[in-house]
Amino acid sequence: MAEPAEPTCCATGEELFELAATLFPMMRSITGQGVRDTLQVLSRYVPIEKREVPTGTPVLDWIVPKEWVIRDAYLEDEAGRRIVDLQRSNLCVLNYSAPVDRIVTLSELKEHVFTIPAQPDVIPYRTSYYAEQWGFCMPHNLLVSLAEGRYRVLIDSELKDGSLTYGEYCHAGRSGREFLLTTHICHPSLANDNCSGLAMLTLLARDLSVRTTRYSYRFLFIPGTIGSLCWLAANEERLSLIDHGLVVSCVGDGGGPTYKRSRRSDAFIDRAMTHIVGKHPASTARVLDFFPYGYDERQFCSPGFNLPVGLFQRSAFGTFPEYHTSADNLDFISSEHLASSYRMLMDVIDIVEEDWTPLNLHPKGEPQLGRRGLYGALGGDKAASERAMAMLWVLNLADGTNSLLAIAERSGISFAEIAAAARLLRDHGLLAETRPAK
Ligand code: ZN
After folding, report:
1. DSSP code of residue 56
2. Which of 31, 170, 199, 229 is the most exposed place for a label (fewest CB within 10 A)?
3. What is the CATH number of domain 13-65+163-353?
């Protein structure tokens, strides 16, 4: 009864995991070859357009930085043993590190090493995009084990005039109105906080590309902050087409689900995601109010744009110990959790696509459902009685002011059940459609 309006092709959890695993080893940053290589992989699934914004381009209050090139990085002791090596972990070099090639004492080295003393076995992920410095990241236990002496530090990097790269794909819908889905593409080997979002939006885009949709779906694969600023600056005159938006990241772990509302707080996407997360059985499911920190929703929800864009995650960023460390690896995400996140995103797309406002054509008294074969199973069959309740709610609230989502919200019944009941009632001539809901 709750079948979608047309058949859809759906990514499996295994496919999502496999793509995340393919992306995991790649050395990404906010600019550079890693972003281009990542887009190359994603373009095998869906034709993503690659855009380049030259170094020095002013975007809103920012300027596109120099492009970072990283060829090698390691730290050696006097015996020539490699203490850390880019070939073993791409988190070991401060992301955007300036070049260095010298012999240093242990105390000088320590000024350039980042660790997390409270999590002594993990490598932290650190960046320095806008302040030029060199540095290494390592487990705290490794740092404290280093003997006095001299160390060779080599970071073969370059900050050069080049460009910032991002990817964009749009699946055109009938109405011309848009649903924006964005994820960042700038973290190196972090499975949940990057690879999961990239895999999720890529396969979602692939699966939507074969559907006929009401909305256009615009997918952005952008470096955090500066990438969204580049896109916003280049697309300012068409932002009014966006009716719904989601920033998607950290969607492969078993926490949450978490939805952070847009700055508007009561946009349609906020209501639809609140409905979906509210129906999730996990006790960790949360809906958070907007706050001006986080991912690119900060830019989309800045006051000059104020777009209806929320943030969807499993565990909320910064709340899990693996966040921004080498423990955010492929063991931290699973195909099961990826599949469940995918289902929630498809569910919200179903709400956006299938919401409409019904009008009860027999509003005086209840229409006789039994005579139409719609009421027979009440009593005994639990699923049938739930279907009947969904029909009664739809008929009662179908006064032309409530869309199906509003009926789902007020009844506490899932949108899918409400939508199925409404289709059935419409097919039996009991409902008419007033106007498509936004
Ligand atoms: Zn992050």
Report:
1. T
2. 170
3. 3.40.630.10
Position 384 confidence tier, pLDDT thresholds 50, 70, 90: confident
Distance 94 CA to ligand 1 centre (A): 14
The pLDDT, as a whole number, for residue 436 is 53
pLDDT (0 to 100) of residue 8: 52
CA 184 to centroid of ligand 1, rounded, Å: 8
Domain 355-436 bears CATH identifier 1.10.10.10: yes
Cα torsion angle, 267, 272, 273, 278, sign: positive
| Tokens coding 233 | 């600056």
pLDDT at 185 over 60: yes
> Ligand 1 center to residue 324 CA distance, Å?
6
CA of 185 to the centre of ligand 1 (A): 10
Displacement of CA 425 from its chain's centroid (Å): 36
Going from the Cα of 226 to the center of ligand 1, the distance in angstroms, rounded, reads 14
Residue 198 Cα to ligand 1 middle (Å): 13
60 CA → ligand 1 middle, Å: 23
pLDDT of residue 386: 86
pLDDT of residue 1: 38
Residue 353 pLDDT more than 90?
Answer: yes
Cβ atoms 408, 360 nearer than 8 A? no
Q: Measured in angstroms, how far is the CA atom of residue 174 from the centroid of ligand 1?
A: 35
User: What spacing in Å lies between the alpha carbon of 69 and ligand 1's midpoint?
Assistant: 20
Ligand 1 centroid to Cα of residue 187, in Å, is 7
**Using only C-alpha atoms, what is the Rg of the chain?**
25
Mean pLDDT score of the chain, rounded to an integer? 95
Task: Kindly give the distance from the C-alpha atom of residue 313 to the centroid of ligand 1, in angstroms, as a whole number.
Answer: 12
Q: Which of the four pLDDT bands, split at 50, 70 and 90, describes residue 86?
A: very high
Average pLDDT, stretch 414-432? 96
The average pLDDT across 297-312 equals: 98
pLDDT digit string (tens) for 330-348? 999 999 999 999 999 999 9
Instruction: Give the H/E segment covering residue 117.
Output: none
- Taking the centre of ligand 1 as the mean of its atom positions, its distance from the CA of residue 194, in whole angstroms, is 7
Rounded Cα–Cα distance for residues 300 and 261 (Å): 12
Per domain, the residue ranges of the chain are 13-65+163-353, 67-160, 355-436
Q: What kind of fold does domain 67-160 have according to CATH?
A: Glucose Oxidase; domain 1 (3.50.30)
